[in-house]
Amino acid sequence: MKVLILAGGLGSRLSEETEIKPKPLVEIGNKPILWHIMKTYSYYGYNDFIILLGYKGYMIKKYFANYYLHNSDITFDFVNNKTIYLKNKTEPWKVTLIDTGQKTMTGGRIKRVKEYIGHNTFMLTYGDGVSNIDIDKLLCFHKSHGKMLTITAVQPEGRFGALITDNQDKVMRFAEKPKGDGKWINGGYFVCEPEVLDFISDDETVFENEPLEDLAKSGNAFSYKHSGFWKPMDTLRDKRQLDALINNNMAPWMKWESKTGHLK
Questions:
Q1: pTM for this one?
Q2: Residue 117, Cβ neighbours under 10 Å: how many?
Q3: What's the chain's average pLDDT?
Q4: How many CA atoms lie within 13 A of 214 on its CB side?
Q5: All domains of the chain, ordered by start, with CATH?
């Protein structure tokens, strides 16, 4: 099954980093967040990716063009003009990189790769958010309802810490960033039937607007509620928080990590 990753936005709220690189290449734990997302799917055996490029997409092409070189031990034999790869440390990925346009909206980007999807179920997510979601359970849920679309629903952390008081207004304790107001939001990690593409009209279509609304109205959208870890990287503060989780061996999405704390 193919996994589509939206990687074409400007990432304007993270301009400290995205002035020089596309947002999916912004690093957490010395690896692009895009790599972390791909590793999550790969952990469950899904290794066929289509990356939907836009802003500074050529940099993502360069990253993957040199991926094998940068992740392998290597000998350059200049006498015999040979390059010898001694140890391959790369993943078993097939990565298709499609330029979907600088100004194309999310729906338009998805629609542009219709020929690569064919008539098959596919997965889709954003290139800037990590989660410890169980992909196998997500797919099982999608198959169980038999409709066109599954959206992973999440509850983001609250913006501020909570103040816990008794009935006389005495402060009892403080709680760090509880879940928000109890509402569920779109967390990405979609599973889609190919008919979803019929709800997208053109490049100007924002997937999160009319297509999702029309799919819901027609009874073709179900939500998979994920109450575990989920965090987007929208700001520099988010990036630093994700970095801190990795540096302290507390990153719940990194299921591929060995017991020693070193990446496999």
A1: 0.88
A2: 19
A3: 89
A4: 13
A5: 2-154+184-247 (3.90.550.10)
